[in-house]
Amino acid sequence: MGTEGQAMLRYLLARFRLSQRAICEESAGRGLGDDFHDYPDTADGQPWHLVDLTCRHCGKTFRI
Q: What count of Cα atoms within 13 Å lies in the side-chain half-sphere of residue 41?
């Protein structure tokens, strides 16, 4: 599988939340509200909306 194929696979794994590693990798260069993190990724696990949350796996700040 080439580089483009690997990138597409990682995107799909992140999009459908099938791999936590892919979620964190694909979210790295995105903004607060357009990444793949969701409330199960937070340390609290609470679905707080419109507040800054932190991923317990990679430390990235995101917003639901």
A: 26
pTM: 0.88
pLDDT digit of tens for each residue in the chain (64 aa)? Answer: 799 999 999 999 999 999 999 999 999 999 998 999 998 999 877 888 898 999 999 999 999 8
Contact 60, 35 (CB under 8 A): yes
Cα(5)–Cα(46) distance, integer angstroms: 34
State phi, psi for 44 to the nearest 5 degrees.
-80, -35
Helix (H, G, I), strand (E, B) or coil at 13: helix
